[in-house]
User: Fold this.
Amino acid sequence: MVGGMSVRRIAVVLLVAGLASGCSGSDGKDGGGKGADATASAAAAASASAASARAVDELKAAVTKLNAASYTYTMKGGEITNAGSVDRPGRQATITASVAAAGEPFRVELLVLDKEYFAKVTGLQIPGVQAGKWMRIDGNRIKGFKAFNVPEVLDPTFSEALGKAATTAERTPTGVKGTLDLTQGAVLLDIGEVRQLGERARAVPFEATIDAQGRLTGWKMTVAAAGARKEAVYETAYTGLGAPVTVARPPAGQVVEAPAMVYDILQA
Assistant:
């Protein structure tokens, strides 16, 4: 890199400048002006591209710093609300995910202790599990909790997917803003919803806030209506960055072993 601009990009700028100069009119009146305009336009485009790349890198670095410590979060959007605390280095978390529905809402409370999980489900009767009891789940026997609306237990807010999906960005007084390509990282939406968006999935607007220590403190994105789904704004906020997170196992009398049906569900 040279001053933030790649050697290839500099070569392109110089090539455009040389071609423009070579095509100047013999009278020297018009050709010089056109060549200068072309050079200025190419330089401006290269500068804007480099600035966008730096802003995307800043966002990715902020995501890395967030996940290097513990935090508390809230996330909402559409019919989903999600809140909890995460200590990724310590591999523990508390998560409560809810989905609005007619009648009693569906809610999952999840305690994460490395590969040992405890889940309490409301709004879905599971045969063999008494209402209000925690199910103990062996993490070595499941693929994940996507079926419970928690695709990644140690990154329940999709922060890493946010960093991977950011394609353009610019700095703001509080962080960065830009566009996400959800075909590169499905943030909050499943693959079916991304496909419904079509080409709009490649330019979903987002804003992210970053604190003075370079850590991600919040983000939001606006997803256009598609199919039967209305336009939705998804927002996430992080607080208590670096504060200790303690997760305790439920009392033994409140715990039952998860039945085979639950393990089948969590193979998705």
In short: Residues 124 and 159 are 29 Å apart (CA to CA). The radius of gyration is 25 Å.
